[in-house]
Amino acid sequence: MPVVPLKHHGRWVAAAVLLIMLAGFGVSMVTNPRFKWHLVAEFLTNASIIEGLLTTIWLTVAAMAIGIVLGTLVALMRISANPVLNTVASGYVWFFRGTPVLVQLIFWYNLSALYPHLTLGFPFGPALGVFETNKVISVYIAALLGLGLNEGAYMAEIVRSGLAAVPHGQREAAEALGMSRFRVMSRVILPQAMRVIVPPTGNQLIGMLKTTSLVSVIAMEELLYSAQLIYTANFQTIPLLIVASIWYIVLTTVLSIGQSFLERHFGKSERREKTTKSMTVDAVKISNAGI
């Protein structure tokens, strides 16, 4: 008896309605003169916009690097048997995840209101050096501190979850072979944990790219602030916001493609395990059939 596939009329209706809505929106974007696409094309490669774009890329990479390194260290402290390290790491995560990143950025930028001078030395001892806070904590340093320290708290939880996903027997087997703790962590635990760590880290990187727009509140000339400076002068707000959005979408797309390649790379071992299990099951079935 032939099998008749189930017809999904609702899907076709929903797809048709969605296509009609998208077509209407597309026509509106093309025919509405207020979008001013000629200005969008003109400012898309504007020197100030490109400079702000490069600043955004640099800030994203630098802040994310700080977050990954710091997050890995904090994650190792959190799983440590040392109660002091565990408490310090837990307090760090609690504080920086509990306060908005925008507040942290403004706080670091205005640190001189609390400490006009930074002193290098030991408590109750002679000062080795005294520096003006405004000169030390520039807008770039404030942006890196605000974004990097905040990201470190989230990366700590991502790395910790990845480490916890590795079976404890892997560590025991490596230690039984006489491997040091450092080699166990770097050669056995972390490579296996990367399968769990990479996907959320990619999401955090994409989120960091868009979070950099918050540094516009401290007058750092990244992509959004560069667009704001231009439309403040020529009052072309919508076209400049579209320009910034286009560049954000382009960068996000590139990062998403890179993330997919990394996930494939670190997922090779998992696919090999599935293939091996499948071949083992097939071999057992064939053996049983022969019996």
UniProtKB/TrEMBL annotation:
Gene3D superfamilies: MetI-like. Residues 53-259 form the ABC transmembrane type-1 domain. GO terms for molecular function: transmembrane transporter activity. CDD domains: TM_PBP2 (cd06261). Pfam families: BPD_transp_1 (PF00528). GO terms for biological process: amino acid transport. It is found in: Cell inner membrane; Cell membrane. It is a multi-pass membrane protein. The chain crosses the membrane at residues 12-31, 52-79, 91-111, 237-262. SUPFAM superfamilies: MetI-like (SSF161098). Its main location: membrane. InterPro entries: AA_ABC_transptr_permease_3TM, ArtM/GltK/GlnP/TcyL/YhdX-like, MetI-like, MetI-like_sf. The complex is composed of two ATP-binding proteins (GltL), two transmembrane proteins (GltJ and GltK) and a solute-binding protein (GltI). Part of the ABC transporter complex GltIJKL involved in glutamate and aspartate uptake. Probably responsible for the translocation of the substrate across the membrane. This is Glutamate/aspartate import permease protein GltK.
